[in-house]
Amino acid sequence: MLGPILLDHLEQYPKWAKSDILVGHLGLLPLNYEYEYFTVLRDPMERLYSHYSHIKRGQGHYFHKILIEEKIDFLSYLRDERFSRLNFNMQARYLSSYPKLLPNDENRHHQGQAKYFENSSVDYVDLDLALGTLRNASWVGTTENLNGLEIFLEKYYGLTEIRIPHLHMRPGGKKMFTAEENEAAEPLIELDQEIYKEWLGRS
Prior knowledge:
Radius of gyration: 18 Å
Shape: globular
Strand content: under 5%
Number of domains: 2
Order of helices and strands: HEHHHHHHHEHH
Mean pLDDT: 75
Strand order of the largest sheet: 1-2
Distance between the termini: 21 Å
């Protein structure tokens, strides 16, 4: 839920002026006033594959050209050290307030990433802080049970007309990964798996 400072800021944008909730690919950053939050966790392997697909689709992404020109498949993507910093425990980083491995320059989404990815370190992710973030949330669910999200929104916020869009979904539903893909991904999502498994039974 947005506090007064952000709501005042959004008044500058007619498209968002009536908004009470801000939703997006956002890391949790400390705010100087009271706020509430909830989140939906995704299977870490599905999340990895989704990000791989996003890069292949997104021509503006720094790694898009590399994936296309070198015809890098998902298994190669997981094994390639050029992408390991990008993929390292992505959900744990968001939840422990290290949302993105990006430089501070204005071009961080494009050319500015190159030098940064070569020099950044992602060895430190605070699992306890990530779990604490979830325990302090109003509600935590998983994509395995989106009905739980609808129940929560109706009960907690009084919302009765709820539509959950499913964007960029593959026609066959959930992807089945090979043993090689699972093995290659394991060191990249070890902490994310711990977090996901802890909440899978609660949603």
